[in-house]
Design goal:
The chain has 2 domains: about 60 residues, Arc Repressor Mutant, subunit A, CATH 1.10.10.10; about 45 residues. The chain contains 4 helices and no strands. The longest helix is centred in the last third of the chain and has 40 residues.
């Protein structure tokens, strides 16, 4: 089941941009996040994760990008569906093979 996002992508981008623009005015990234998060209406930890992910997506920080994460999820879903289809085909093959053996004996 998919969780619906509480914040729109526009708010998300705006909050990250605000942190990046005002980062130099604060002694640390966390101080900037703590100052801006209440203005957006989210907790500082959430905003910090958004900022870190934006840095990964832009290449400023190492990690798995959002696009790569989505691709991995899609591939995992496809593998799961293919395994399920394989299992069905194996069962069907065994059923028809047994039916063929039963038919020849009569």
């Amino acid at each position: 089941m998919r969780k619906t996002p509480r914040f729109s992508p526009e708010v998300h981008e705006r909050a990250v941009r605000m942190v990046q623009e005002h980062r130099g005015e604060y002694p640390s990234l966390w101080a900037a996040v703590e100052s801006i998060a209440p203005k957006i209406g989210c907790v500082p930890q959430t905003l910090l994760e958004w900022v870190k992910q934006a840095e990964v997506d832009s290449g400023a920080r190492k990690g798995v990008t959002t696009d790569e994460t989505q691709r991995i999820k899609d591939l995992e879903r496809e593998v799961k569906e293919l395994r399920r289809a394989n299992e069905i085909l194996k069962l069907a093959s065994a059923f028809f093979a047994q039916a063929e053996l039963d038919r020849r004996l009569k």
